[in-house]
Amino acid sequence: MKVIKLNKIICIIILVIILVIFIYALIKPNNTKTKSADKLSVVCTSFVGYDFVKAITKDSNNIEITYLLDSGVDAHNFEPTASQIIAIQQSDLFVYNGGEMENWTEQVIPTMDLSNTKLIKLMDTVELYKEEHIAGVEEEEEHEELAWDEHVWTSPKNAIKMLESLELGLEEIDNKEKDIFRQNTNNYKKQIEKLDEDIWDIVENAKRKRLVFGDRMPIRYFLEEFGLKASGAFNGCSTETEPSTKTLAYLINLIKEENIPVVLYIENGNSKVANIISKETGAKAMQIQTLHSISNYDYKNGETYVTLMNRNLEVLKNALQ
Ligand SMILES: [Zn+2]
C-alpha cells in the first residue's frame, strides 16, 4: 500500500516537471535569436556584407539574414553580445570583413563549434594593401608593423569580387536557389559597374587628383583604384580626434596653395576638424561616404552600397574641380 502511494507521488512529481518544461518551452522569451528550423541563416558583421547578401538573396524565402551592426555602432567599437555569438554559431553562413576593426572575430571564432557553419572572410576575397602613412597625417606615436588595410569595399572593383564570392558561398548552402542568386548577382553587379563608370567619368574630367580630409580616411582602395591622392588629419582608421597644429597647418597651407575647393569628413565621423579648416581656408566642408559604419537612419531607410556610394558622385565633382 505504502509503496504504491510513493510511486503515485513520484509519478505526479515527474508529470509536473514535464508540464513545467513544456510550458516554459512554449512561453520562452525569444530574445536570443535562434534560427528558424526551416530557414537557412546568414549572419553578417559589416554593412557591405549584409547589403550584398540581401541583394543576392532577394526574393528568396529560404534565407534569414542577421546584420550585427544594425544599431549604427562604429565597426571599430563593436563587441558581440552572448546572443549574437549564439546566432553566429547556429548560422549556416557567417560573413565577416576581418582586419583590425573585427579583431573580435579572430578571438571568438576559434572558441566556437562552427562545424555546420560556412565562413566567408571578405578581406580574403580581394588583393590587399598594407596600411600606409600618408603625407600630412599625424605621425603615429610608435611605429608598429603596418597591418593589412581592411577597408577593401571602398573600391567598386573589389565590391564586385566580394559580391561574387558571396554568391558562390550562398550557392553552397542553398543550391536549390542558385538560379535566383545568379540572376540577382548579375543585376547588382551591373549597378556597381555603372557606379564605377560614373566615378571614372568624374575622375577623368577632373582638374585635380587630390582629396583633403579633415578626418580619418579609411578609403585607401578607392584612392588606389582611381589614381587619386589624399592628405588627411589622421591615418586610415586612427582613433585620434585632435590633429597636431603641425598637421593642421600643413592641410590649411595645402588647400590655400592649390586652391582646393573641398575639405572632407566621413559619415558617422566628426566634422569638427573639417569645419576648422573650412573656416580658415574657405574650402567647403563636405561629407563623403566610406560605408565604414553606416548610420542607423540610413540602415532603416534601406540605403544600399550603390545608393550610398552614389552620394559621393556630387561630392567628388566638387572636390576635384
Ligand atoms: Zn576602419
Secondary-structure map:
Layout (H helix, E strand, L loop, with lengths): L1 H26 L12 E5 L2 H10 L6 E5 L14 H8 L3 E4 L6 H6 L9 E4 L34 H18 L4 H27 L5 E4 L6 H7 L2 E4 L12 H14 L3 E5 L5 H10 L2 E5 L7 H5 L4 H15 L2
Parallel strand pairs: 1-2, 1-3, 3-4, 5-6, 7-8
The structure holds zinc ion.
How would you explain this protein's 3D organization?
- By secondary structure, this protein is of the alpha/beta class.
- The chain is 45% helix and 11% strand.
- The strands form 3 sheets. A 4-stranded parallel beta sheet has the order 2-1-3-4, covered by helices on one side. Strands 5-6 form a two-stranded parallel ribbon.
- The protein starts with a helix and ends with a helix.
- The model is unreliable at 28-33 (pLDDT under 50).
- Zinc ion binds next to loops.
- Zinc ion binds at residues 76, 101, 151, 218, 237, 292.
Low-confidence stretches: 28-33
CATH architecture of the largest domain: 3-Layer(aba) Sandwich
* Global structural class: alpha/beta
Bound molecules: zinc ion
Enter the CATH topology name of the largest domain.
Rossmann fold
Helix count equals 11
Strand order of the largest sheet: 2-1-3-4
CATH homologous superfamily heading of the largest domain: Nitrogenase molybdenum iron protein domain
Shape type: elongated
Which whole number gives the mean pLDDT?
Answer: 89
| Beta-strand percent range | 5-15%
Query: How many E strands?
Result: 8
Major beta-sheet overview: 4 strands, parallel
Termini separation comes to 100 Å
| Domain module count | 2
